[in-house]
Write a structure and sequence with these properties.
It is built from 9 helices and 7 strands. It has about 200 residues and is of the alpha+beta class.
C-alpha cells in the first residue's frame, strides 16, 4: 500500500495545475482530491494535514534531486520513522507546520538532503514508517507491486478490474487504426464488398 500511495501522489502531481518556477516540485495532495481535480476544482496546497501542511505528511528532496514521500501522520508511523533516521528528538513534532523557519521542518529538509533517493529507500526498507521513494511513471510501472499484481498488458497499463480470482477484465487491446471498423460499419449500412472497394479506390473512405 505504501508504494501505491507514492504512485497516487505522483498522479496527483501530474493532474495539478501548472506551477510557477518557484513552485515546481511535487507536493502531496489528499487521495480523495483526485476526483476534485478531475472535476476542475483547485486544491490548496500546504494548508491542511494531507496537503503538505505537516512535517509528517510531505515530500522531501534528496541529495540527488529525487524525492521521498513521507506519510507518517499516524503516531506509530511517525515514531518508527524518527527511530529509523536517528531523530527521536523530533518524536513529538509530527504535527509541526511544514513551513520554512519551523525547526522540525528545516531539520527534515536538511536530513533528507544528506542521502540519495536510493540510499533513503534502502535505509527505510522494511521500516513501517510510510516513507517511500517517489517514482517516475516508468519506474512505477516497473515496480514490484505493479508487476506482482499483473497490472500491465505488454508495455501498457491493463485493466485493474478483476472479475473473479485469477480473471481480469479486458486489457491489452491495441487502439484501432484509422478506418479499422469502416468496412464493418458500411456493411451494417447495406454496402457490399464491391461498394467498399469502390469507396476506398475513390478515396472516400
Amino acid at each position: 500500500m505504501r508504494r501505491v500511495t507514492c504512485i497516487l501522489l505522483l498522479v496527483c502531481a501530474l493532474l495539478a495545475p501548472a506551477a510557477t518556477a518557484a513552485e515546481r516540485r511535487p507536493r502531496p495532495l489528499p487521495r480523495l482530491d483526485v476526483t476534485r481535480l478531475l472535476a476542475g476544482e483547485s486544491v490548496a496546497r500546504g494548508t491542511g494535514d494531507l496537503t503538505g501542511g505537516r512535517v509528517s505528511y510531505n515530500l522531501y528532496q534528496t541529495a540527488d534531486g529525487g524525492y521521498m514521500s513521507l506519510a507518517a501522520l499516524e503516531p506509530e508511523f511517525w515514531q518508527a520513522f524518527c527511530g529509523a533516521v536517528g531523530r527521536m528528538d523530533l518524536a513529538d513534532q509530527g504535527m509541526a507546520p511544514a513551513v520554512a523557519g519551523e525547526p522540525a521542518y528545516d531539520a527534515l529538509c536538511a536530513l533528507f538532503r544528506t542521502r540519495t533517493r536510493q540510499e533513503w529507500g534502502e535505509t527505510l526498507a522494511g521500516v513501517d514508517a510510510c516513507c517511500e521513494p517517489v517514482l517516475a511513471l516508468g519506474e512505477a510501472l516497473a515496480s514490484a507491486p505493479v508487476q506482482a499484481l499483473g497490472m500491465l498488458a505488454g508495455d501498457l497499463p491493463g485493466s485493474p478490474v478483476r472479475l473473479s480470482p485469477g480473471v481480469r477484465g479486458p486489457g491489452g487491446l491495441a487502439a484501432p487504426s484509422l478506418g479499422h471498423h469502416t468496412a464493418a460499419i458500411l456493411a451494417e449500412l447495406g454496402y457490399d464488398e464491391g461498394d467498399v472497394v469502390r469507396l476506398r479506390t475513390a478515396g472516400i473512405v
